[in-house]
Amino acid sequence: IGMLELADRYRLPHLITLCELYISKEIERATAQELIKADIDVVGLLLHAQMHNAKQLAAFCLHFLCTNYQVMQKRPDWKNLAGDNLK
Fold this sequence. Notes:
mainly alpha, 87 residues
């Protein structure tokens, strides 16, 4: 996430894309066994992605949250969703 923030600050779109790919693969790896107990905050990653111009990662996170809605809404990080992300 720190690298993504720096890539956005210095306007390095190729590095943003690489960070997006890496983070999305980490989400898949962390949630492969059991989604409810996964040690990864997809909602937090979505908010960071939206803040730092990582459009592909934001889209991936939204898709992930929608696809896994039943399970994700039971996680404590779900309460951090607000605004346009709930539409």
